[in-house]
Amino acid sequence: MTAAAYVEDVLLVDRCLTGEPAASRELFRRHRGRVHACLYRVLGGNRDMDDLLQEAFLQVFQSLRGWRAEASLATWIDRVAVRVAYRYLSQRRRRIATDPLIDEDGPTMAASPAAEVPGARRQLARDGVKRLYAVLDELSPAARLAFTLHEIDGRSISETAELVGSSLTATKLRVWRARNRVQAAAAADPILSEFLEPTGEVIPFADRGTP
Amino acid sequence: MKLTGRIPVEPLDEERLTRIERNVVAGAVDMAARPARAARFSPALAFAAAAVVAIGAGVAGWKLRGGAPAPELAAAPIDVRTDGQRTTLDIGDARIHGEPATAFTITRPAGGVLVAMARGKVSLEVAKRGDRPPLVVKAGDTEVVVVGTQFTVDYGDGTGEVDVRVAEGAVRVVRLQQETRVAAGQAWTSRRGLVALADATPGPRAAGGAARPEAAAPGATIDEPARRGNGEGIEIDVGKAPDVLRERVAAVPDVRAPQPGTGPAASRTPTGGAAASSAAADRPDAAAGAHLPRGDLKALIRAQPVLPALEVGASDPLQQMAEYRAIMTREKGPKEAYAFYSMAVIQSSKLGRTADALATLTAFRRRAPSSEHFAAALWLEVRIRCLQSLDEACRQAATFYTQHAPEGPALHVAERIALTR
């Protein structure tokens, strides 16, 4: 992070602390995409996503005076968002109500990795995601955070450890255990297995706009 | 297992985002309007508030006896008179022990604490004041300004001499517009000025004066026996302290004139130097202090030159700003800090963008707390705020400077500002 970017952050935060609405709006707009993506990848599609995003930013503004500028503002905001996600996971004893993904191509296919129709294969990918998050629902909040931040959100182990406030060793262990758990579930579930280790039968979600 | 980037994020539609944004911004503005820390309710505070209300309602003289509850101070003055026993008054940020036959009044001017003694002796334990204005004990025409220490004030029957002893910490004594900082190891008398403890001879005690505290006790003693009724011959001596006399040198300006070239110059540090010292010698008497008219105080502030720490060659302020930005982008370490501080100087002195300068200074303080220009940055904030208005924000900045730049060259000016009421 350059000093100029750092100054920009600091000036923006100072403006926010004076109660300037334009500054608060700017901060929200700068970071909302990343925070939303982070929450989404950790929690999956979720009915409470709007509330969680709002809660994360309200927490950010509530704690803004405490930002010591030791970390970049983005990292600090991510940390707040991760705490919100952790609290959400901890408080919900029941399973997270994962939203059923919109089925654009008809009813959910049976568990058949050999599906021929592209639409059906996309559906298979969606099913894979659903099954992955169903396995993640069984993990402890800390393990889920570590796994999703590292494996899905693509953060390094050290960054993940910093975000969740754990040691590197503990974070590595959590990721390793969660991965074992997911792989064990995949061994008994061909759709999840196909999603985790695609053989070319499943169209990745990233391609969903191109039939 | 490779999952990164394979799980797409369902975007939020504009309507939902707008609603969230509206709620968040409203919440942010609301939070910014709140004080940084909400006051905590406690039964003791409630009781204290009730006590204050009772005082305000017309209790003419409040006789505080041993074991009395501790009132929380409000704007209304509290008159304290002890009878035959020692008593303790806890005002939250200080604890005041009153000896028998002691009378004093406590007020909170502008967030500080003023203990105005009429007679007797008090011992004070003062917590660190942080950003708050100082606690001042006034005994006759002598004021003792405390930032955070333990000390004792003995004022006899309220007509005599004052004697100060400091074993720990430091206090500033102000009398007849003369201001002296007395620390452990130093003593001061009105006849001989600042002297070592070994040279300080405490004056004889008044028969009717309150018992003098033991010199071994940590803290300062201000002792004013009754029979020195003319107020002359104030003696301040320091108990149990080394015999090293460390009189303050004349204050110097924050920053020397920059040297040509782009390199940072160590001689430009805010701790000043010989050239600056000679400039300080021309300034008004350092003792004028808190009693200066506001206009004079502003003149004193202006007399502290503030210059960029880094010369970039350009004469146009905007061009200079661009240069500093470029340096901050590509440099790390001291040079980055020099550019940072210099930006604030240009923003305030040449561009007139004082709000931006203050924000830059805040950023600088966070980013470079160990920079050699840290004290200069604190002073620049004092200068900006106090040249705008000698108000509470100005006093707070000055108080902060006195606490965090105790060796700062503009300390004498900052102390005066902090004392203004």
Structure in words:
The complex is a heterodimer of chains A (211) and B (421). With 211 residues, chain A is an all-alpha fold. Chain A folds into 2 domains: 3-91, Rna Polymerase Sigma Factor, Chain: A (Orthogonal Bundle); 118-207, Arc Repressor Mutant, subunit A, CATH 1.10.10.10. Chain A is built from 9 helices and no strands. In chain A, α5 (118-136) crosses α9 (190-196), α6 packs antiparallel against α7 (157-164) and α8 (168-187) packs across α9. Chain B is of the alpha+beta class and 421 residues long. Chain B has 2 domains: 43-236, Sandwich (Jelly Rolls), CATH 2.60.120.1440; 266-419, no CATH class. Chain B has helices spanning 14-33, 43-56, 274-281, 294-302, 317-330, 334-349, 354-367, 374-388, 392-404, 411-419; strands at residues 62-63, 78-81, 87-90, 94-98, 103-107, 113-119, 121-126, 135-139, 142-146, 150-154, 163-164, 170-175, 178-183, 187-189, 193-195, 221-223, 235-236. Chain B has an 8-stranded mixed β-sheet, with no helix packed on it. In chain B, α8 packs antiparallel against α9. The longest helix of chain B is centred in the N-terminal third of the chain and has 20 residues, at 14-33. The N and C termini of chain B lie far apart (69 Å). Mean pLDDT of chain B is 65; it is low at 37-75 and 198-291. At the A-B interface, α1, α2, α3 and α8 of A face α1, α5, α6 and α7 of B.
SSE inventory with pairings:
The complex is a heterodimer of chains A (211) and B (421).
Chain A: H1 3-17, H2 21-43, H3 49-62, H4 73-91, H5 118-136, H6 141-152, H7 157-164, H8 168-187, H9 190-196
Helix pairs in contact in A: 1-2, 2-3, 2-4, 2-6, 3-4, 5-9, 6-7, 6-8, 7-8, 8-9
Chain B: H1 14-33, H2 43-56, E1 62-63, E2 78-81, E3 87-90, E4 94-98, E5 103-107, E6 113-119, E7 121-126, E8 135-139, E9 142-146, E10 150-154, E11 163-164, E12 170-175, E13 178-183, E14 187-189, E15 193-195, E16 221-223, E17 235-236, H3 274-281, H4 294-302, H5 317-330, H6 334-349, H7 354-367, H8 374-388, H9 392-404, H10 411-419
Parallel strand pairs in B: 1-2, 6-8, 10-16, 11-17
Antiparallel strand pairs in B: 2-5, 3-4, 4-7, 5-6, 7-10, 8-9, 9-12, 12-13, 14-15, 14-17
Helix pairs in contact in B: 5-6, 6-7, 6-8, 7-8, 8-9, 9-10
